[in-house]
């Protein structure tokens, strides 16, 4: 399934457009996966970083108290940190801290996938371009075009992390589970 989804993104003239269409179709199914381990298995094994970005973006938009119109960028990922709530409806009695832990896991996964799409590897940095255009861009050694909202400062990150910690303190109280603090440090 993951290989087929990856190929479906690649065969379109616009991988960005096809990943949006596929994510729109898959999103309701993600919402109905009952167990965290099943959701994580599906998202962690996704071969297409672009499709994973689109799915996680939809998931976070769904969980935001105030959805944003920012394009997917580092600024939008910080926005999700500050405005997302516990995302999915749970059928079992999952502890509140575990819901926040899952949200942080998906936010880290979104950040890593976004970096793979935009910044990280020479062959992957043009994933928003068609396969034919991508080969030309790689041959020309063209640098990926960053968006204005990708220019964030260390202060922006620090302020958003502090805001997130305050929100968690209101919900969880003190002390935070070690697992949450580790994920927060890794994300930062």
How would you describe this structure to a colleague?
By secondary structure, this protein is an all-alpha fold. The protein has one domain (1-187). It is 65% helix and 0% strand. The chain has 9 helices and no strands. It has helices at residues 2-11, 15-31, 36-44, 49-63, 74-83, 96-118, 131-139, 154-172, 178-187. The chain is globular, with a radius of gyration of 17 Å. Residues 120-126 have low confidence and may be disordered. One of its GO terms (molecular function) is SUMO polymer binding.
Which percent range fits the helix content? 55-70%
The fraction of residues assigned to DSSP E strands is under 5%
Can you count the beta strands? 0
Q: Summarize the main sheet.
A: none
- Give the total of domains: 1
Determine the N-to-C terminus distance.
32 Å
Radius of gyration: 17 Å
Identify the overall geometry. globular
Uncertain residue ranges: 120-126
Number of helical runs? Answer: 9
Average pLDDT over all residues: 79
**Estimated structural class:** mainly alpha
Give, in order, the helices and strands. Answer: HHHHHHHHH
Protein name: SIMC1 protein
InterPro entries: ElonginBC-PRC2_ViralRestrict
GO molecular function: SUMO polymer binding
């Amino acid at each position: 399934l993951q290989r087929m989804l990856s190929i479906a993104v690649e065969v379109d003239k616009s991988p960005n457009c096809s990943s949006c269409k596929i994510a729109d179709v898959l999103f309701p199914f993600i919402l109905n996966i009952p167990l965290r381990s099943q959701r994580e298995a599906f998202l962690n094994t996704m071969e297409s970083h672009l499709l994973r970005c689109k799915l996680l973006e939809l998931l976070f938009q769904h969980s935001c108290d105030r959805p944003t119109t920012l394009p997917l960028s580092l600024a939008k990922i910080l926005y999700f940190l500050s405005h997302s709530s516990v995302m999915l409806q749970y059928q079992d009695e999952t502890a509140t801290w575990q819901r926040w832990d899952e949200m942080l896991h998906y936010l880290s996964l979104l950040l890593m996938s976004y970096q793979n799409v935009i910044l990280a590897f020479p062959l992957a940095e043009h994933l928003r371009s068609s396969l034919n255009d991508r080969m030309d861009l790689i041959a020309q050694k063209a640098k990926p075009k960053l968006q204005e909202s990708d220019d964030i400062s260390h202060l922006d990150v620090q302020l958003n992390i502090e805001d997130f910690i305050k929100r968690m303190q209101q919900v969880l109280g003190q002390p935070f589970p070690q697992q949450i603090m580790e994920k927060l440090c890794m994300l930062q």
